[in-house]
Design goal:
Mean pLDDT: 88
Number of strands: 13
Helix content: 25-40%
Order of helices and strands: HEHHHEEEEHEHEEEEEEEH
Shape: globular
Structural class: alpha+beta
Number of helices: 7
Strand order of the largest sheet: 1-9-8-7-6-5-2
């Protein structure tokens, strides 16, 4: 598929790093946080979304995916007793974003609904050091010659170059920093859902768009390497499979492929559980597969929670 992360990297002048950055991975692996104590709650949350929250024999994805998300966010909020600064967060729904930039000689714009956006009173600190940022100068971005990297993008007439963080960040709004975007790919019909690679590309474009709009609001529209990089995270899920992303905007100088690049860390295709058996399987009067959740993967929730805690812990 051409419309994937590789294309999004070129459009956003971004270097990809596989896996989560050390700042987030350290939260996942920190035993002092007691994340393992939450495993029972998470199993209950999955069972509630997949097995119990419906009168139907089996809930549809468009129903259980949002329910599971709300359940997991509720468990994350329980940590605010231990970390009071977590209360300085706000979830905004149906936030619109518009960000415009020039790449080589092409004017580009990302705009639309940003999924569910968690905002914070304070920004996430940079996850890459100044040395790591400078080292990106040596990174060579992949080109697609002879195919244009904009081949499948929609062409429109742009009458106004918008850089707008939407209704979420009006002047004086206390939760003025984008923290994490959540994309629920919950269409029941498979052909209406983004495939994981497409979802990761969408996550990258919107994390970049939110970071760029915020950078321009803070520092103006002149292209520059940022003294204080802007970090925006993204989580995508279809209610079972999770995609995790941390994006760091290092530069708004995007015209040329030379110089400092932006950075993105991606942890792909993490199952929270293997299967949900909504009704027992019976053969000749004997239950061969009982109803329930199988193949639960606690590390996937730990990563979800680590992104939530990032910037606080």
């Amino acid at each position: 598929v051409f419309a994937g992360v590789r294309q999004a990297q070129w459009l956003t002048k971004t270097k990809l790093v596989e896996g989560l950055p050390p700042a987030v991975q350290g939260i996942v692996e920190n035993p002092a946080l007691g994340l393992q104590e939450l495993e029972g709650r998470v199993k209950h949350a999955v069972s509630h979304a997949r097995l119990w929250d419906t009168a139907e024999v089996a809930p549809r994805r468009e129903q259980y995916c949002p329910v599971l998300f709300e359940n997991l966010i509720h468990i994350c909020r329980l940590m605010s007793g231990k970390y009071p600064s977590l209360s300085k967060r706000m979830l905004a729904r149906n936030c619109r974003i518009a960000a415009t930039w020039e790449r080589e000689s092409i004017l580009l714009q990302v705009r639309g609904l940003s999924g569910v956006l968690m905002n914070s009173m304070t920004p996430i600190p940079p996850v890459a050091s100044k040395e790591e940022i400078l080292a990106t100068k040596e990174h060579v971005l992949e080109t697609f010659y002879p195919i244009a990297p904009t081949i499948d993008l929609q062409e429109v007439n742009v009458y106004k170059e918008l850089n707008d963080t939407g209704q979420c960040f009006k002047d004086g709004y206390p939760y003025s920093h984008p923290h994490t975007l959540f994309f629920l790919e919950s269409a029941s019909v498979r052909t209406n859902r983004f495939r994981p690679e497409q979802l990761r590309a969408k996550m990258l474009m919107f994390a970049f768009g939110n970071a760029l709009a915020k950078a321009k609001a803070l520092h103006g529209s002149d292209p520059k390497v940022l003294e204080q990089p802007i970090v925006v995270q993204s989580v995508g899920t279809d209610g079972q499979l999770f995609q995790f992303m941390v994006f760091q905007l290092n530069t708004t100088d995007l015209v040329s492929s030379d110089g400092v690049k932006n950075l993105v860390w991606i942890d792909s295709d993490q199952n929270l559980y293997e299967k949900a058996q909504c009704v027992p399987e019976v053969k000749k009067g004997v239950v061969t597969k009982p109803a329930g959740i199988s193949g639960f993967q606690p590390d996937t929730f730990k990563k979800f929670l680590a992104l939530y805690l990032h910037g606080t812990v």
